[in-house]
Design goal:
alpha+beta, 6 helices, 17 strands, six-stranded antiparallel β-sheet, 369 residues, single chain, Jelly Rolls, Rossmann fold, 2 domains
């Protein structure tokens, strides 16, 4: 990926390393005085999309895949106040190509400098998933005397995606099916979920975690697991049971569920009735959280039978019980050929795009988008 000459990323720690261990760093103490360009996390001109813990208004804590932050700033430079050390982000200034930010022990990262002295946009998107670690956004640093500017309203269309590694963009930038997983090759912004939302001009929220199923997680020796994906669904941050997410704070018109791959990819499979009952309960929770929402249940493209038939039967049962706004979408395993595979056989960019190409027209036609 080429870095545009107009801006650059500088990691103040001086090296670009990814640590798999938990790191602690001292917080840089920055006090806004109204003129020094320091912008706090509670500035009303910052748009947060995804699940953020705003218990402390001075910071926004997060860990779910694909959360993103939008802002517009006046001036020639912009730095990010962030405590992390584990995750990777896409940073986009104006309409340029995104640049990858790899976090370390720094607490301030330069995102852009030497820009024209006018209004610019900045988009920060989390590429990596919850188990990689939390991030703590503290705000921005701009040129002295500069401030954030107002920006266009967020799109009216909103989609929530509930899923697993496919939704997370696991290994999407991996070279081949035999490539091992590395955080550097995970990119939620290239998953079918993000591609679908962008094609439909919608904001999106991901509630997704690799290896989780409806009732059974990948590789479990038992038919059910104590902590499948539905057990995490209410969490603001995946790593913490509290605070519980406020579902009234961001209400989607569409929820896409793509679960079941991990339930059935290894033995022992869960009982059909146990799987279907839990899936129906999840749909019921979604409908309770968002009255009038339209739910699309996707199966694939990494799993076929019996999961596909089971999910389709769930949708039929919901429709038979009067839930008309529940639809089935199959992304068949035949969709992916070897050139479509990234790390550990997951869809690469091309494979994720093929999945989005199936999902997008169905949502567009159903929702009249």
């Amino acid at each position: 990926m080429k870095m545009n000459r107009k801006f650059y990323l500088v990691l103040f720690a001086g090296i670009m390393l990814l640590s798999y261990s938990c790191k602690k760093s001292e917080t840089t103490v920055l006090q806004p005085d109204g003129s020094n360009g320091i912008i706090d996390a509670d500035n009303p001109n910052i748009q947060y999309i995804g699940r953020f813990d705003r218990t402390d208004p001075g910071k926004a804590v997060f860990d779910w895949s694909g959360v993103y932050i939008r802002a517009a700033f006046d001036g020639t430079s912009c730095s990010l106040r962030l405590i992390d050390g584990n995750n990777l982000y896409n940073v986009t200034i104006d309409d340029e190509s995104p640049v990858v930010l790899v976090t370390d022990t720094a607490t301030v990262y330069s995102l852009a400098s030497g820009l024209a002295d006018t209004v610019h946009t900045v988009l920060i998107e989390k590429r990596t998933e919850a188990w990689i670690g939390k991030g703590e956004f503290r705000g921005f640093i701009l040129d002295e005397g500069k401030n954030l500017a107002g920006q266009d309203p967020a799109p009216d269309r909103r989609i929530e995606f509930i899923g697993n590694s496919i939704t997370c963009g696991y290994g999407v930038e991996g070279e081949s099916a035999s490539s091992p997983f590395e955080p550097e090759t995970e990119n939620a912004t290239l998953s079918y979920a993000a591609l679908t939302a962008k094609a439909l001009n919608a904001d999106y929220m991901m509630v997704a975690y690799s290896g989780r199923g409806v009732v059974r997680n990948y590789g479990d020796a038992n038919q059910t697991s104590p902590d499948p994906m539905p057990s995490l669904y209410d969490r603001t941050c995946c790593a913490d049971s509290t605070p519980v997410w406020d579902f009234s704070s961001w209400i989607p018109q569409v929820v896409v569920v793509n679960l079941g791959t991990n339930d059935f990819s290894t033995q022992p499979h869960p009982d059909k009735s146990v799987f279907q009952d839990a899936y129906i309960q999840l749909i019921s929770r979604v409908q309770s959280n968002y009255p009038g929402v339209t739910v699309f249940c996707v199966c694939g493209p990494m799993i076929g039978e019996p999961c596909a038939s089971y999910v389709e039967e769930v949708v039929d049962q919901c429709q038979g019980n009067g839930a008309d706004a529940v639809y089935y979408i199959e992304a068949p395993t035949s969709l992916l050929t070897m050139p479509d595979r990234g790390s550990d056989w997951h869809p690469n960019i091309q494979g994720q795009q093929k999945t989005a190409d199936i999902v997008v027209p169905i949502i567009r036609e159903t929702m009249n988008w």
